[in-house]
Amino acid sequence: MSVRILHTSDWHLGKKLFQVERLTEQDLFLTWLSKEITEKKITHLLIAGDIFDTPNPPDKALSTYFKFLREVSEKNIQVYIIAGNHDSGRFIEAPKEFLKKENIHIVGKLNSLEFEPKEHQFEISEYFQLNILPYFRTKEIQDLPWYEKPEQFESEANKEALLNTIEKLVENITNSQKKNILMAHHLFGSFFTSESEQSLNLSGVNSIPLSLFKENYEYLALGHIHKPQIVSNEKPLAIYSGSPIAFRFSEIHQKKYSLLTIEDKNLKQEWVEIPSFRDLIRIEAKSSTWRETIKEKLTLHSNVSNTEKILLDLDINVDEVQPGLKREILSFLENYPVTLMGLKIKVQTESENSRNALNLEQNIQDIFKDYYQSIYPGEDVPQELLETFNLIQNKNMGLT
Q: What are phi and psi of 266, to 5 degrees?
């Protein structure tokens, strides 16, 4: 009998977009996921953290979560859940002894002071073992028995001590006699963000190296990054499944989950697309053709019912100030099933030379941001640093 593993993460139950509730979409996703588990004959479900959006989730989010767990408990599958950086590990773990009887296994926190490898190890087949690590912080790594505090607390020495401890942690949960799969919620290797994830940092360790897993691991089931992606195609295959719905307009991309099939000693991975339960769209239009542009774009989403209104972010570029334009736009949108989340009317009156200068400035700023994130993956440029960079750039261009 083959093992079929569904890897998902970052549900963020209870999360809003500004003041707009998203639980209806999240409930629709979980209803769909429950059917997927049956149709795809899933035997193991991996939920790689950030179940909720806050450590103390609202009652409706809790109800949605436990309703789903009740449904999957009736499907005779094994479920594995870890806490992410948005979750409270203690809160997630609270019902674990009850849920264990339903084949739902939860690890909410790294118990550093009384670390037991067996609490993180689960046999999933004759040849494969699943090892799971919840989100952890620097202090939890430093409390592990293998941590050796550097004599001088320099950044490189501290980084090396932390990496050595993480390596020992991995060694202690790894079964060298089997092929291993890891489920974890952190930053691994090189990745692409959706610009909505919180920055994670382990006192100088910006990303956990994949080299720690090359020898005994076949697959890393990762959570935290919202954009589905393959971090490494080589052994181990490392994948962020991404979030199941778009939580911001920067996340407008096809949502997926990762499906693994294990036959004897062989593992195969494939992507499965998740349908959209509520569309987020961003439209940019010119003042002369904004009606036609909006109509054309919204027609592509005409299957969305009025009870699931499109969330719209709208930019209108005009050559000069047009009194009453905002009122016209709002009136026009009343004919469509949309909730307007943002409206920018941008006046473009600068000369061609100044426009080119501004575009050049923006391009250089983007290059600076890319360079910063290449050094500190997943981190946004601090506002103070960005302001200093812009000040220097403006002086160089004679704009100040």
A: -105, 140
Chain mean pLDDT for the chain = 88
Tokens 């291993």 label which residue?
A: 180
The b-or-e profile of 49-76 (16+ CB within 10 A means b, else e) is bbbbbeeebbeebeebbeebbebbeeee
Please tell me the distance from the alpha carbon of residue 292 to that of residue 268, in angstroms, as a whole number.
Answer: 46
- The answer to whether 273 and 256 are in contact (CB under 8 A) is yes
Instruction: State the number of CA atoms in the 13 A half-sphere of 398 facing the CB.
Output: 2
Break the chain into its structural domains and give their ranges.
3-273, 280-347, 358-396
**pTM confidence score:** 0.83
Strand 217-223 and strand 266-273: the pairing is unpaired
Contact partners, residue 141, CB within 8 Å, separation at least 6: 112, 147, 162, 165, 166, 169, 202
- Token readout for 55 is 């450590």
Token digits for 136?
A: 């952890």
Distance CA 220, CA 210 (A): 9
First CA to last CA distance, the chain: 71
The 8-class DSSP code of residue 266 comes to E
Q: Give the list of residues 6+ apart from residue 121 with CB closer than 8 angstroms, or none.
A: 129, 130, 131, 173, 175
pLDDT digits (tens, 9 = 90+) for 6-39: 999 999 999 999 889 999 999 999 999 999 999 9
CATH of 3-273, one of 3.90.550.10, 3.40.190.10, 1.10.10.2840, 3.60.21.10: 3.60.21.10
In degrees, rounded to 5, the angle at the alpha carbon of residue 276 between the alpha carbons of residues 272 and 279 is: 150
Select from 3.40.50.300, 1.10.1270.20, 3.30.160.720, 2.60.120.620 the CATH code of 280-347: 3.30.160.720
Interstrand relation of 104-107 and 78-82 (parallel, antiparallel or unpaired): parallel
